[in-house]
Amino acid sequence: MDIEIIRSKRKSIAIQLKEADKITVRAPLRVSDKEIMAFVESKMAWIISNSLKLKMKQEKLDKVRLLSDQEIAELYKSAKVIIGEKVRQYAPIVGVTYGRITIRKQKSRWGSCSAKGNLNFNVALMRAPEKVLDYVVVHELCHRLEMNHSARFYKEVRRVMPDYEQAERWLKVHGDEIMAEVHGN
Ligand SMILES: [Zn+2]
Questions:
Q1: How far is the CA of 174 from the centre of ligand 1 (A)?
Q2: Domains plus CATH for the chain?
Q3: In the prediction, which pLDDT does 184 show?
Q4: C-alpha–C-alpha distance, residues 182 and 29, integer Å
């Protein structure tokens, strides 16, 4: 395992694990290497368990096949139609209006909703089960009522989709795989 030590004007020692076999330690200027190593050793259980998690995640992503440009273009085409239909279907159920619908290839988010009601959706959602796609549509439409993730927001989401947590869980477990299909890893 590689250890990189970065000293700076900070008050405490912190450990970061960006890759499975590389530890980055951020430490105050005056802390000795010996103290840093003692700190790292005290965190070994955390380091090992997180390193394993990262390895498993990377192995999972290594198995993902990157879609071709043509396949992604097809996804865009169907996303425009299918997501458009879903927004039309759910908007009256949520009880809101909306603006433009845009399909994007984003690395970080599944969808967004602007103050004007313009909706963006990630093209990678087309690789998710339909229920998950429905959830993201409902989620963004509910932002027309609540521009946050408060309890009131989730109450609205639950009213329209009582089992929405299943879809959230799916995205948590498999989201990085469908992202990788579109973006590479
Ligand atoms: Zn949201």
A1: 18
A2: 2-62 (no CATH), 69-183 (3.30.2010.10)
A3: 81
A4: 42
User: CB–CB of 78/127 below 8 Å?
Assistant: no
pLDDT tens per residue across span 15-65:
999 888 899 999 999 999 999 999 999 999 999 999 999 999 888 888 899
Q: How far is the CA of 152 from the centre of ligand 1 (A)?
A: 12
User: Percentage of residues in the chain with pLDDT exceeding 70?
Assistant: 99
**Token representation of residue 179:** 């992202």
How many whole angstroms from 134 Cα to the centroid of ligand 1?
Answer: 14
pLDDT confidence of 109, banded at 50, 70, 90? very high
